[in-house]
Design brief:
alpha/beta, 7-stranded parallel β-sheet, binds iron/sulfur cluster, 10 helices, 7 strands, TIM Barrel
């Protein structure tokens, strides 16, 4: 295999290597629940949310909105220092729900509290692509002059028929517009995508690699569809299981490698698979494997296939 296009020995473009190259150290994200909601839940666009949505499943225990942001950061640092002793710099990750869905003045107060913490080097803001505007982006680009700032958009699918079926209540074009306006301001753009949504074939999902490669995205998180308890999708799955073609672990490993081969090698991969605590899952077709264990298996298989991200990428 030729040397990868990025300067380390991994077979895909990792976020850890990006941090090392750019900041000379690991940047550890600390999840913050700042009490946001979402227009697809508060009645503005809908009340039931996206069919797969269960934000509880993604929230670490230290992360509760009744605690101040400073307290959540302190507890998050303590948690991660026990687990990752190498981390010296931290990013406040505004994670659950839509973290730009407040007035700009309120956002300034919330992000400002996180950035005033001496251990915090930047912020990552997870949000919907229809919850951002130019004034908010301009403000974020001011912060980005002195801090790491990334905006992470849920794309989930490049197909409007899928977005409609999972009740995202926005289109793919909305996501493209938000991504472009964010990138124009030189902000770091992250994106999420889910593989295995009902109605999409493996070929449909692989075709997304080319579409995403053409967008000004800095990083991507890949997730396999997981059916979570107390979601609309749980009921759909129980009523019509034939609509779902969930990946086995072996199928997912081969699929993700096929996808990475087609993906622009400049896009940093922040996640190769999703992971939620088993108590939230309706079924666990992969057993109790953690995301980092899945990553090890994917890299091992990439080595056996003598391949890397971008091997078959073409503009
Ligand atoms: S946009 Fe996010 S928070 Fe809102 S309903 Fe969908 S998955 Fe849940």
């Amino acid at each position: 295999m030729d040397e990868p296009l990025w300067a380390d020995k991994r077979r895909f473009n990792t976020f850890a290597a990006y941090c090392q190259r750019t900041y000379g150290t690991r940047l550890q994200k600390l999840s913050i629940d700042a009490g946001f909601t979402c227009p697809n839940r508060d009645g503005t666009l809908g009340n039931n949310g996206c069919t797969y949505c269960s934000n509880d499943a993604f929230n670490p225990s230290y992360c509760q909105p009744e605690k101040s942001i400073t307290q959540q950061i302190n507890e998050g640092i303590e948690f991660h220092q026990n687990r990752y002793r190498r981390a010296t710099k931290y990013i406040a990750y505004f994670q659950p729900y839509s973290n730009t869905y407040k007035e700009l003045d309120e956002l300034k107060t919330l992000y400002g509290e996180a950035l005033s913490h001496t251990m915090i080097s930047g912020i990552t803001i997870g949000t919907r692509p229809d919850c951002i505007d130019d004034a908010k982006l301009d403000y974020l680009s001011e912060i980005a002059k002195t801090h790491f700032v990334s905006v992470e958009y849920g794309i989930e699918s490049c197909y409007n028929k899928t977005l409609k079926a999972i009740n995202r209540a926005h289109t793919f074009e909305t996501a493209v517009d938000a991504i472009k306006r964010t990138a124009e301001r030189k902000l770091f753009v992250g994106a999420h995508i889910i593989f295995g949504l009902p109605g999409e074939s493996r070929a449909d999902m692989l075709a997304e690699a080319k579409v995403l490669s053409a967008l000004p995205i800095n990083s991507l998180k890949l997730h396999q569809l997981q059916i979570l308890k107390n979601t609309v999708m749980e009921t759909e799955f129980k009523n019509n299981p034939e609509r779902f073609d969930l990946f086995s672990l072996e199928e997912y490993i081969e699929f993700v490698i096929d996808f990475l081969e087609l993906l622009n090698p400049d896009i940093i991969i922040e996640r190769l698979s999703g992971e939620v605590p088993p108590r939230f899952l309706v079924n666990s077709p992969w057993g109790l494997l953690r995301a980092d264990q899945v990553m090890v298996q994917i890299e091992k298989r990439m080595k056996m296939r003598d391949t890397c991200q971008g091997k078959y990428y073409s503009k």
